[in-house]
């Protein structure tokens, strides 16, 4: 069960439309995918978010080299081995690169065991996974039309990007609430607010009854988020603050969140998410899963996680509706706002290497900023 060969590449899949958020615009999703071969003849595939140049660099220079000879069952040890190679000082520079390899290890291990991944992590807690419709628009009228379209397709939870400016925060949230009635509506600020602005905006938003307001303050300000929880009746969710296991432990200790959004790419692996979710469960905190436009491998991994984690009790984020393609013939699909959990061994995904080749690129492009605004860049907090 030891790894004998590692292959990897960047791929970029276009989105069906340009999406807008507080840190710029995006027209595609860049991912790092990897394939491992083992001495037992079984292969495994992994995928990770690749937003910055550190991801492929760390994967190629450290992760891929350390993986040769590793048993695919030793996911925890491998994660710590990479951190021990100097990245315990720079965890956020390493986690996304680790995640691709760790996912491939689990995929191979599940295939060897003849079991879907959720069966290796405690078993099936839920068979269907609710998906939240994800909305990206700075225009209230366009947002309203799009939300109604998602509702017509069976979605029952909605997430709206705000954080452009103070007035549009309220206008977008009001348009969203009018469009979907009493259905759950989440608002994602992406750390745009100062503490003073946050208090004012939460007061203005309270009557719209958001399911939660996500990352209202800069990611390091756990005390500020704890203060907002005490100040406002609007639940506070943290995502950018919740990368690593230590991050999640600090959030729980500080009582800084009502909801925590986890992400295996940002945590450094699937197993790290399971551990982080357990911390949250002990504190009575529900968890969701953050979306960065996952392709088939990562989407399947999300479904296995959500299927077996008891406190993953809220709809998972997904940008699935915006993907202009994928790398598998059996990529997960959404029906009436829900995914079905894969049941084949490992991730349960059949990769098309021809499609992988079609989407291969040599660099990361369009992750942040906005080509239409030369010289512009986001500042956190912004207002």
UniProtKB/TrEMBL annotation:
Pathway: Carbohydrate acid metabolism; D-glucarate degradation; 2,5-dioxopentanoate from D-glucarate: step 1/2. SMART domains: MR_MLE. InterPro entries: DgoD-like, Enolase-like_C_sf, Enolase-like_N, Enolase_C-like, Mandelate_racemase_C, Mandelate_racemase_N_dom. Residues 140-235 form the Mandelate racemase/muconate lactonizing enzyme C-terminal domain. SUPFAM superfamilies: Enolase C-terminal domain-like, Enolase N-terminal domain-like. Its EC number is 4.2.1.40. It catalyses: D-glucarate = 5-dehydro-4-deoxy-D-glucarate + H2O. It comes from the Bacteria. It is an enzyme of class 4 (lyase). GO terms for molecular function: glucarate dehydratase activity. Pfam families: MR_MLE_C, MR_MLE_N. This is glucarate dehydratase. It comes from Aliiruegeria haliotis.
